Amino acid sequence: VRSRSTFKEIIMRLVEIENTLLFEQDKFFSQCHASTILKVGEKLLCAFFAGTEEGKDDVRIFLMTNENGKWSDPEQMSFTKDIPCWNPVLLENDGTIYLFFKVGKKITKWQTYLRTSTDGGKTWSEASELVEGDKSGGRGPVKNKAIVLSDGTVVAPASVETNTKWDAFIDFSKDNCKTWQKSNLIEFDHKKAVGKGIIQPTLWEADGKVYALLRSTEGYVLRSFSEDLVNWSPAEKADLPNNNSGIDCVKLPDGSVAVFHNPIACADWGDRNIISYAITKDNGETFLPAVEVEKDEDKDAEYSYPAAITDGEYVYLTYTHYRKNVMFRKFRIED
Asked: In degrees rounded to 5, what are phi and psi of residue 7?
């Protein structure tokens, strides 16, 4: 049993100081989803996919910039073939901004493309395949941010989805995203599974290891870790509900990790009308009580696919808001 004083401590941990929707509703497109956020200097970048509806041929990647507290209009970032785009991910490393995104008629066949900027997002390279000729899907980050380890290795949370199984792995690069190495799949017992499996890891580094929490079809988040990036421990149940929807985490200055999620246990496509965060102080073995960020009593409401980053002083969060907009929230980290 956790004490009330502990619960108060967690409520005070992240103090919200700002929240806003990114754009005027219905002004630019019918639907949007799967945001990603990045801080570069004093500027924030946010990308997402948008169009008529997820999976439609007109769905493209869009980028917005926040300077001096004001968000720009969305700028299209993906090429204009009649092929849907999905799940952008932003990364900054060694002065270069990377924009990864998926392209494909079907998730089972999508490919990962990349654009880069060396001037803070003012101009961008042409789009190119991240791993040339990859036809199996899944290379590079799939939804959540890549992280840069203490030794400079870029580690991207990846997964592959077939019609019958979902599996997760890690892609990593030791040469600033020029070439990529694929880890072994994170071991998951599909024979005992309720649903298809695990996808969309979220990562952090601690104690000489890289840890992963994973979205699953089992009604709860799963956990794995690695000491060499190639081999991963078997996925095991974490004490955190999951509704088969995306999660994301940030490592806070004291070493604890805040995990943003929908606190609903459902094996397949559960409600997404609540978004919360829960803090773990032992790298995902246990979690303190979840703190609600936003809730709607309407079960058809959607607050999903959180994307979270921190600069050590603040946590910046974006997530899908009713599939019509992107919500941005800023929290001050308090001891």
From this structure: -60, -40
Quick one: average pLDDT of 227-247? 97
What is the distance between the alpha carbons of residues 229 and 209, in angstroms, rounded to a whole number? 8
The CB density around residue 28, as the number of other CB atoms within 10 Å, is 15
pTM (predicted TM-score): 0.95
The answer to whether 57 touches 49, Cβ cutoff 8 Å, is no
- Residue in the block written with tokens 């079809």: 217
Give the CA distances from residue 188 to residues 165, 235, 266, in Å, rounded to whole numbers and listed in that order.
Answer: 11, 6, 18
Phi and psi of 132, rounded to 5°? -60, 130
Rounded CA-CA distance 330/332 in Å is 7
- Site of tokens 């570069």: 40
DSSP 164-189: S-EEEEEEEESSTTSS-EEPPPPP--
pLDDT digits (tens, 9 = 90+) for 195-211: 999 999 999 999 999 99
Residues 38 and 90: beta-carbon distance below 8 Å: yes
- Max intra-chain CA distance, the chain: 56
Q: Which backbone phi and psi does 140 adopt, to 5 degrees?
A: 75, 180
